[in-house]
Amino acid sequence: MNEREILTEYVYQMVAALVQAGVENVVVSPGSRSTPLAYAFASTKQLHMYRQVDERSAAFFALGIAKATVKPVVLLCTSGTAAANYFPAIVEASYARVPLIVITADRPHELREVGAPQAINQPNLYGSHVKWSVDFPLADNAAPTLPFIERHIARAVAIATSAPFGPVHINVPFREPLLIDFRDELPETAFKQSRMAQLMPSKIAQQELSSILRASERGFVIIGELPLGTDLTIMWDFVRQLKWPVIVESLSNMRTSVPEDCLPYIITTYDAIMKSDEFKALVKPDTVLRFGAQPVSKFIMQFITNSQPTAYIVVDEDPMFRDASGVSTHFIHAELGEWLTNLDISDTALDAQYLAEWQDANDIALEYIEHYSEAAVDEGAMVSRLLRFIPNGSDIFVSSSMPVRDIDTFLMATPKDIRIIANRGTNGIDGVVSTAMGFSQGNNRETYLLIGDLAFLHDINGLIASRYQECNLTIIVMNNDGGGIFSYLPQSTVEAHYEDLFGTPTALEFNDIAQMYEMDYIRVEDISELSEKFTTVKTRSLRLLEIFTDREENVYAHRALWNRINAGLKAWQS
Amino acid sequence: MNEREILTEYVYQMVAALVQAGVENVVVSPGSRSTPLAYAFASTKQLHMYRQVDERSAAFFALGIAKATVKPVVLLCTSGTAAANYFPAIVEASYARVPLIVITADRPHELREVGAPQAINQPNLYGSHVKWSVDFPLADNAAPTLPFIERHIARAVAIATSAPFGPVHINVPFREPLLIDFRDELPETAFKQSRMAQLMPSKIAQQELSSILRASERGFVIIGELPLGTDLTIMWDFVRQLKWPVIVESLSNMRTSVPEDCLPYIITTYDAIMKSDEFKALVKPDTVLRFGAQPVSKFIMQFITNSQPTAYIVVDEDPMFRDASGVSTHFIHAELGEWLTNLDISDTALDAQYLAEWQDANDIALEYIEHYSEAAVDEGAMVSRLLRFIPNGSDIFVSSSMPVRDIDTFLMATPKDIRIIANRGTNGIDGVVSTAMGFSQGNNRETYLLIGDLAFLHDINGLIASRYQECNLTIIVMNNDGGGIFSYLPQSTVEAHYEDLFGTPTALEFNDIAQMYEMDYIRVEDISELSEKFTTVKTRSLRLLEIFTDREENVYAHRALWNRINAGLKAWQS
């Protein structure tokens, strides 16, 4: 075989192994060093190839596809800082537990660390933020090469897709010339399949924990964002059986599509009612059970830390279990579904009055929130109304910072079928547009993105993807001209440097960018226009709905709502 | 002292140490965790604080200021993926050898790796791509804390600013509450100054090398981008004394402000003349001396590799010296100026005929290039004309990919005072707008940016900086709708997938973005409009000159020029 044939075999063997391992989607950024693999991806009909010029956005786009499809997604870029641009999305994928197969093309060994152009030290580039990293050999005629490649691709995908999911990194050096021969068919793979272990809870854990749960008189469950692909029917069976108050963050997707018999146990207003000292005194728990990621609300977490329950049990797939409270007493290492289906909680000792306190407080808060949605005119009220306008069967991708908090405040338990998705691995405001666009590509449902002006601006390059593939997404930008979340923090009490360091207004509006990208643009000046304007949103294309709100008004309105709920809870208790 | 007083002392001691070490500029991105330091920066009159919301752009902006000022620049961001967004610019700073002091705010130890929001594993986040990394202790009352901080700040700046320059990373955890008391005066620093060693060439190296240079009959010097702050008067003295052909890349800044008596030795058309096999046979060297980074032109580097000179001497400040040719024979570890001023090259054996061959070929190529500049209508000809229009005393920041190559082709040796700057550490097309904007901030000369449409789009967020500080930069976008450089690579001979993977046209134009950012916008449809339109460019503001060119036409025109030069050299030799 000549060099070109050897290179051709090498890259198609990689692609065959990726396809064999279940990869369906690849996101490619243009570059020269990655040419052999880019050609192989583009010419393989089993793969769907997406494109995005900005590698930072490309990686978040891939993250979005992986979130929607619950399958590993491949990234490919050229050598140099292109690879460094993947870093923010890789970090997010690591903490959000999303399977990304990051492939970086590299210079051959003789061009590494010798001042060659576009060459950086790429092996282990992402440090502790990938589950695994491997540096591939150059394409050659040696017998071990193709078998090695095939099995290391299989290994990479297996690692990325075993619990907890996460990103892996494959660094692939290519020597010039970079051209290959196109092939219509992929080669056979000798390696057939990785069958990974399931993380079963230990027997003793099941027994011990079943006893603790059965004996508890004042327990609650708190559920944050669940692992990708969690089967919610198991969750609902558990809620039904346990009959405890279940505090669900909106990202758990257990506020929507709620089965009727589970509705009484679902507590959604925890952020509001946890601001009431009287209520907190009333519901001091003996047992707390936590699943999933840390919830958005600080107040519920502070409540747990301060109340120091006798048993605070965290279930996690990762030995690096997530508990920032510092008061956990039990850690169960297991896949959630495996643990829940093996519990014995047929007969619990829960105090009926304790459950009623939660339910009553939740109902009171709900009433205030519903009235607020009708009467108020701020950003929160707008989010609340949008939740009504967005049709059944849709998904909402929610930006970090204020949108995720507004959704958590205003999304009530409902049988309506809407899913809430966000980048909450590291809570960044970066890459949000791209992740939503990738999500909408992998999703067969209508997708909406709710985002603030700074987060939209931060990833405005997410829109470049729309130049390379048909995109369908309604982007709802809440433009309050700056960083709205800081108005809720102690920094807002200090006048000096506030706008410079925290408010950071840009005075930008986004009609021009909509025009540049040929998006439909709808401008909403205030809440009175919202309903009518929303009906003009067309689906099956890329659109921008820009809603103008006022940072000061928003925080004032929010605080007034919390005060009313607090007063309501006081009146109820006396 | 209470917690707030302790925190106040801690951050002002950091700032005092930074100021004491010579830091003048800081670039801050908004965030909560970084609040104590951000307050301290904002309230310190000895520091100039710049702001940028997008951390990727912020880091390149800081890189640009450091390049212009030849001084360390501080970056500050909050915890989480904000810090990961710095990575591309840090990698560039590492290979381009630019002193950045990267400060990332972090969560306190009890909130690390426990699922707390916006917390990622930050110590050593940038791996091998910083010269040094340190994780600071929390603010406390212990006696060792402030002395440690003060000296580690001094150490960080000393490491970043000793040859070779580079980025360092300081990770600083803060525990809530994050508010401090503002101070008008900085505290005293007990630590006064780091005095770093100079990298003097060893005596034996001076003697040996002087002998080699004196004995050489067929030698040339090749000079790429020189270390930041290189004193060019020493370089010119060397050129004068040595009297060898000196091949200067445009980024060496030895094509402009050329002293008259040095002009005869300066060879600028090496990329063109190295395409002639006849010429290469004529000037096979016995000795090559190389300074600075690897030059843009592949052809000159291939010539060196293929001709295997008896002595190929690389001078570098870094033991990781830059030589991708694989034929180097001597490495001199020293600061360039120290080495040059101590050489004894008063009387060299250079063959006068050999020098004349270089000079004649260069003159022939120059003539064709000058004629081309008058007659041709493509992107290259436009760049060539822009070089004439841009006034004396200006600087041109040049994007990687085609602009840097066009400048290298068309910028001839001239007494005119223009400097050429680029991000050539890793040759990325990312962060170029931001680096140029940062450069123009640190620069007291009029600055122009020459950039292609994809690179402009990649870092369009560089423009956000203009919302937070007065910016003065003329951005000249060569819009050829996609990746022009690939047309020169072997990939362009393969029709299949070419536009999808390499051309990647977006069909975007930038008048809307100019409007969004309130920039002056000038549209140039073809070269006939260039001269007149260029005169309408106003200075002292942010402007966009968008020039439309055609990818196919550009490559055709370039090739025609090279063929004519090749034919001209053939005719001359026969």
Protein traits:
Rossmann fold, homodimer, 574 residues, alpha/beta
If you had to describe this structure to a student in words, what would you say it looks like?
2 copies of one chain form a homodimer. Chain A has 574 residues and is of the alpha/beta class. The longest helix of chain A is centred in the middle third of the chain and has 24 residues, at 352-375. In chain A, strands 2-1-3-4-6-5 form a 6-stranded parallel sheet, sandwiched between helices. In chain A, strands 9-8-7-10-11-12 form a 6-stranded parallel sheet. The first copy, chain A, has a 6-stranded parallel sheet with strand order 14-13-15-16-18-17, with helices on both faces. Helix content of chain A is 39%, strand content 16%. Chain A is globular, with a radius of gyration of 25 Å. Chain A is built from 21 helices and 18 strands. Chain A folds into 3 domains: 3-173, Thiamin diphosphate (ThDP)-binding fold, Pyr/PP domains (Rossmann fold); 203-356, Rossmann fold (3-Layer(aba) Sandwich), CATH 3.40.50; 379-549, Thiamin diphosphate (ThDP)-binding fold, Pyr/PP domains (Rossmann fold, 3-Layer(aba) Sandwich), CATH 3.40.50. Chain A has helices at residues 3-20, 35-42, 55-69, 81-85, 87-96, 145-160, 203-215, 232-242, 270-273, 277-282, 298-307, 336-341, 352-375, 379-389, 402-410, 432-442, 453-458, 498-503, 511-516, 530-535, 551-573, and strands at 25-28, 48-51, 73-77, 100-106, 132-135, 168-173, 219-223, 246-248, 266-267, 287-291, 311-316, 330-333, 394-398, 418-422, 447-452, 473-479, 520-524, 542-548. Chains A and B meet through α2, α4, α5, α17 and α18 of A and α2, α4, α5, α17 and α18 of B.
